[in-house]
Amino acid sequence: MKILFVCTGNTCRSPMAEALVKHKMPTAKVQSAGIFAGTNQRANHHSIEALKQQGINMNHSSQPVTDRLLNWADLVLTMTTQHKQSLILNHPKFQDKFYTLKEYVSDADKEVWEKLKKAYADFEEKRSQFIHKNQHTLNNEHLEEELTKFLRNDIQHIKQLEASLINYDISDPFGGEFDTYQQTLKEIDEYIDSLLKKISD
Fold first, then answer.
1. Residue 182 pLDDT more than 90?
2. What pTM was computed for the model?
3. What start and end residues bound the annotated signal peptide (predicted)?
4. Sheet with 2-7, side-by-side order of all strands
5. Of the candidates 194, 13, 10, 200, which has an alpha carbon nearest to the alpha carbon of residue 103?
């Protein structure tokens, strides 16, 4: 199974997850990327040091999420719900591969996510149909206003579903002290163990 881990900048959480999997299962095919990542940036020095203390060396260059990478991956595991939502909106054709790491190993919220996927898809379809139908009769400002009114119930429905989700986020250590990175690594490590157990089973 080819696994892609995704976080924001691909310098802290997702490289840690990638390094842990490579260390615990050297045969695994695994990469990491970031939604807003630059190219070829080194991992955060606290991330490198936290891993080194666990006896793991990390040689990492950041990369952004691309269709090519998503095509390569069998499974895409994000560090937060927001990362997952961003991927669903920007790369909808791959959405069956997207899970947060915590969600994938715990299975608790599957039903809500199925409803959310449908709600996002319906929202996008209604939005584009409305724009297509009204773009020539309304100016931009009025179009935006009418669109918001037209989609009000859908937005509310999505917000309610999102509010009922369990918190599946791995905390972001960026900008924190070294011990914050150690705590984040410990949290990721716990879920990587569950992930590897699930894959092996």
1. yes
2. 0.75
3. none
4. 29-34, 2-7, 75-78, 98-100
5. 194
